[in-house]
Design brief:
Elements lengths: L1 H5 L15 H27 L1 H33 L9 H35 L4 H22 L8 H23 L4 H13 L14
Helix pairs in contact: 2-3, 3-4, 4-5, 5-6
């Protein structure tokens, strides 16, 4: 994997264009979104499973930190380009791109795979939304986790066709889950439990999901 990254010239795909701050800004926004979505779901998740809910928030925070760490080399690459020294930097640009790729595999690959398994299990087990959404999340998380592990050990090429295909179920889970929450919301039993918990002053009351087998 190191050998492949070393011979990949990061400025060739730019086709004469200079690197910009756009990618750094998008990575930073993605990191903030990771933490924000975890905080939004935390009140519900800790009621159904305090330990897994806290684990989900912790891993999302780790994922955000790794994403920001991967954005820093890209910021340095932009500075090199703006300073006119990109072509004379030797292997430094390759090393910066390699660090960014490694952060992508760790943060948006391994960690997000575990996170998806956790949130998928909580959705499926406690019927926060449709159980099928949770099942898709667990399947997608396992596939992405496997894909990125195989890329780390060099069995699969970095960001190849296999990786894209194995990421499709997780992408579908994220779109379905987000759309369901936006247009439908939590299932009635979860909404009722939230009202009861807020009235009783118990922020970590457990949802009695056994009463809703659907």
């Amino acid at each position: 994997m190191v050998r492949r990254c070393r011979h990949r010239k990061p400025w060739r795909p730019l086709r004469g264009r200079r690197p910009s701050y756009g990618g750094v800004v998008l990575d930073t926004a993605l990191a903030l979104g990771c933490v924000g979505t975890a905080l939004a779901l935390l009140p519900v998740l800790v009621r159904v499973s305090p330990s897994l809910g806290q684990a989900f928030l912790t891993l999302r925070t780790v994922e955000a930190a790794v994403i920001v760490a991967g954005a820093m080399p890209m910021l340095a690459l932009v500075w090199l380009a703006n300073g006119g020294s990109l072509a004379d930097a030797g292997l430094v640009p390759d090393a910066l791109v390699g660090i960014h790729q490694a952060s992508f595999l760790l943060g948006q690959g391994l960690v997000i795979g575990v996170n998806s398994i956790i949130i998928g299990y909580l959705v499926w087990r406690h019927r926060i939304v449709l159980p099928a959404i949770g099942l898709l999340g667990m399947i997608g998380g396992v596939l992405v986790l496997t894909s990125n592990l195989l890329q780390l050990v060099g069995v699969l090429p970095l960001s190849g066709t296999h990786h894209r295909l194995m990421a499709v179920p997780l992408f579908a889970f994220e779109i379905w889950f987000a759309s369901y929450l936006v247009f439908v919301g939590f299932r009635p039993q979860v909404r009722t439990d939230r009202v009861v918990a807020s009235q009783s002053g118990n922020p970590v009351g457990r949802v009695a999901s056994q009463g809703d087998p659907s």
